[in-house]
């Protein structure tokens, strides 16, 4: 398997974009708050 440097930054950007989209859509559906848990809020972006 090839090693890809900088992929974690790309993955973090994708996750932030998806979270922003989900947050906007949730507010439109009446959500008052969102909870994000796991490694992401701690700043640990895992490569899967």
Question: What tags apply to this protein structure?
Answer:
48 residues; mainly alpha; elongated
In brief:
The chain has 48 residues and is mainly alpha-helical. Helices cover 46% and strands 0% of the residues.
What does the secondary structure layout of this molecule look like, with pairings?
Blueprint lengths: L6 H22 L20
Helix content: 40-55%
Terminal CA distance? 13 Å
Class by alpha and beta content = mainly alpha
The helix/strand order is: H
Number of strands: 0
Give structural notes.
The protein has 1 helix and no strands. The mean pLDDT is 79. It has one helix spanning 7-28. 46% of the residues lie in helices and 0% in strands. By secondary structure, the chain is mainly α.
